[in-house]
Amino acid sequence: MEEKKVDVILDGYIHIDTLSNIKKGDILILYLISDRIIYFYQGEDVLSFLNKRNKIFLNNKLIGIYFPKKKLADDDYSNLSIFIFDNASNIPEKLIEKIKNTNAELVYLSLEKFKGNIREFKKFKEIESKIGAISLRYLGLSGVTLEYLSNCSNLRFIDLSYSKNVSNIGLKYLKELFNLEILYLDDSYITDLGIRHLVNLSKLKTLSISGTPITDESLSYIGNLPNIQRLNMARTRLSGEGLKHLKNLENLVEINLGGTFINNSSLYFLNNMYSIEILFLDANDITDEGLFYLKELTNLKELYLNETDVSGDGIIYLKNLKNLENLQLEGCNISDDDLKYLNLLENLKYLNLTLTDITDAGLKYLTELKNLQILNIEGTKITGKGLDYLQNYLPECVILSDI
Length: 403
Fold this sequence. Notes:
Blueprint: E1 27-32, E2 35-40, E3 49-52, E4 55-58, E5 61-66, E6 82-84, H1 93-101, E7 107-110, E8 131-135, E9 157-159, H2 168-171, E10 182-184, H3 192-195, E11 206-208, H4 217-222, E12 230-232, E13 254-256, E14 278-280, H5 288-291, E15 302-304, H6 312-315, E16 326-328, E17 350-352, E18 374-376, H7 384-393, E19 398-400
Parallel strand pairs: 5-6, 6-7, 7-8, 8-9, 9-10, 10-11, 11-12, 12-13, 13-14, 14-15, 15-16, 16-17, 17-18, 18-19
Antiparallel strand pairs: 1-2, 3-4, 4-5
Pfam families: LRR_14
Protein name: Disease resistance R13L4/SHOC-2-like LRR domain-containing protein
Keywords: Repeat
């Protein structure tokens, strides 16, 4: 298998590129078995990870330790850059010492589901300059805890997802972390007032605030973040009019608006966001008419329209999207005749037609999609005979079905 360099793998989405410009300090977020880890790239050409006995290796070099409810060992971990200490009720002095004495310039510290006293975070003062990334998911303490991060000037990554007690007041302690690049606040109680505290974080590249009660007002603040590349605002209270504030974000490549209150008219504000490559519009009140506003987004590679009212008439508007590789139409109003419009998207690699009304009669229109790699037809009326017919024309395609 060809080794690939990894640019960034974001929580929930995987982006693997054969880029040659990865440099020291780039944040890599990877999934290793069931544990998410972060490694600050040190210049190696080949990335290969191994998790063995709660230790994390890169090119046979120990770079991290994972302690699931275990006592800290006395081993010499002088080159560690990853420290995972989840489900803890305190922050041991030994952990602080190991972080303080490591040769790594910056470290990743995970204290997910921390159950201790807020006073434990006072110990951060000894390692403020060492913390480059921290995960405090499911933090049960109040947002005042974040005051102890306010002097961690090298922080580039913070994950506060599912921390229900972290409120707007807590975010004010992050407003001067000017090196911050990635911030997760998913399923927290952050509102527009909290997002306002982030306006000066000019290096921020990824902001994930799905499942929060933010409204379109937040977009007026986010529009001032010039380096934003990825925005996850799924399951929020957006109506869409605030999208106009994002028009000058020239680096924006991914935006998730799934499960919000946007509609056809909201998509008008996307029509000149030419940098967008990945767009999630799932579970919204969107019909064919709305897709008209996407026809100029020629850099679009992935489009998610699951559980919308889109039909074949809307797909016609996508015919000029020559870079489109991934089209998700699960639960849409797609019938056999609508499939003929998919031939306009000759570069499609991934197509999801799950839970649509297609039958064997429409499969002839899919046989021309020679670049298809994965096709999902689960929950349709396709028969075994139709599946065999399609597989004969698309022998290299993996077809997912429940037949």
